[in-house]
Amino acid sequence: MAEELLKVLLYFDIFSYPLTKRELITYSGISGEDGEGADAAIEMLQREGLINRFGGLYFVGAKRQNVVRRLNGNNRAAGRMRTARRFSRLISWFPFVRGVFISGSLSKGFAAKEDDIDYFIVTEPERLWLVRSLLTIFKKIFLLNSYRNFCINYFVDSNHLSIREHNRYTATEIAFLVPLFNSAMHQRLLDQNSWAGEYYPNLMNNNKYDYINNEPALKRLVEKLLSGPVTGRLDNYLYRRSRSWIRRQFSHMDDDTFACNFRVLRHELKYFPNSHQFSIMDKYNERVNRYLKVPRPLRAAE
Predict the structure, then answer these.
(1) CB 60 within 8 A of CB 20
(2) Can you give the pLDDT at residue 218?
């Protein structure tokens, strides 16, 4: 139990994010009936100097300044979430959008001044690249290509909800997704990624959110008009053109590096050009190995 508690703190320490006791216990997968054991494990970790507590928040090291940083970020996140709700409703009006979920730091209730709002978007099969193109055009014209409130960097279609990478980073992003449009699609995504419950069993439900489930009649009409095979061919054309454009934009990357940062498929777009996931997992493994003296890496097979 102490080891699981420490692993959770080590992971969130990468983001300079201390946790409350309730968060620490919940994220560690400890049930309510084991509360006394969790309290004892936390006290033991404190006595051994492995974790510290300040202002009611727990963290590793001597980083009290992160407590103030977190509280400021939590306050800022409330306003950013209101913005995310407005844009999520707007995204949900686009044809063939089947789910809109918030990911990234905002999904954990935190927003730094420089943070974008990240969206995880589910589309109708064979319409992903049409949706992505329409949203990109909207962003370029009406938002002057700003990512601040409209960072659309992950798309999957509703037939491919299972996420390939199985590790703590991906499990965290799945378990903490904030669904703002289509509760049923969110539950399907959780069900098809049930492996994430190995990391966060207490978070794998969707009954604590305020969803948008209704769709405007105009959206249904447009979808009906675009339901023929011509639209499918257009989507395939947009996919091929977009794939070529993205690869040219990052031609400095070799194929292996590109594959680690992007997934550009007909049914999925993952767009993270800064090796974010792998950098985080490397930092996490290093921390776990150092604190727990584990002689082997913990990154799950991709």
Answers:
(1) no
(2) 95
